[in-house]
Amino acid sequence: MLSRTAENLFWMARYMERAEATARLLTMGQRMTILPGATMRDEWRSVVQVTECEDVFGKDAIIREADIVEHLILNADNPASIRACLARARQNGKSVRTALTQEMWEALNEGWRKLETYGVNDARREFAEIIDWVKTRAMIFRGATESGQLRNEGHDFLRVGGALERAQMTLRLLDVKYYVLLPETEVVGGHRDHYQWTSVLHALSGSRAYHHVYGGSYTPAQITDFLMLNRQFPRSTLYCFDQMAYRLQRLASWHGQRTPANLRSEEMVETLAQANSGDIFRRGLHETVQNKIVQCNALGHEIAQAYHFG
């Protein structure tokens, strides 16, 4: 497979995953803002921080929902916005059209200009509908991929890109909850704390799966374990790490050569799998999350170097 084809597939999956992840993040942010005192806590700033768009806003400015809609949903010039991610995913897909099934292309192409028709006020009124539309587009794309694409190296590049992006967003959601949204230690364990932690599960569609594992007990340590260490939940960090290691090993078999990306992905799996229940929360969630994000970024660079992207 040509390197540019592999790169387009890799980034197509990342952009689709990023668009959906941003939609999920906005859902969590909106749930946070309905809590008492949300305006004073400037909850939307945490969403901006996790998407690394804080420079767009003034340091002391109160960020409103209208600002979020404008910059993280509609702004085509902001690479972190949903509109930009969907457009870039389509552009990548168009470049490798022959590597996609008809259904995959339709999932990328159908309605891709939808967000161009919205102004900020219209998008605010239809906020929930837009978020659901984005998530549905991503799920249709994944369904088309799973049901029709050949399990060749192109499929592996696509899957490793999606797993890498998903791992990073799960980590960022956890970091926003623990480090940004809740710096006041006196409220840990209170009603607001409980609501915020369960909002993280809701944003990742993990509420029902968590209940199957832990029953009705919701604690920060258990939620952290579930979202980082559970090997059966497809949005957990360790599940995504397992997927990356597996896909990279398949790519090594296709190309007859292991790369530094293989070694790093396997080390990431081994290190995280050694954590016991509650260890991450007790040792420092923020520090652990930041370390894993750095590792993900390094892995992305090593994949690009190994397969000669760009």
In short:
The protein is an all-alpha fold.
Residues in helices, as a percent range: over 70%
For the largest beta-sheet, the strand count, sense and barrel status come to: none
Question: If helices are DSSP runs of H or I spanning 4 or more residues, what is the number of helices?
Answer: 16
| Form type | globular
* Structure class: mainly alpha
Uncertain runs with pLDDT below 50, 5 residues or more?
183-189
Number-wise, the strands total: 0
Q: Give the H and E element order.
A: HHHHHHHHHHHHHHHH
Fraction of residues in β-strands: under 5%
Number of domains: 2
Distance between the termini: 14 Å
Mean pLDDT: 89
Radius of gyration: 19 Å
Structure characterization notes:
With 310 residues, the protein is mainly alpha-helical. 72% of the residues lie in helices and 0% in strands. The chain has 16 helices and no strands. The two termini are 14 Å apart.
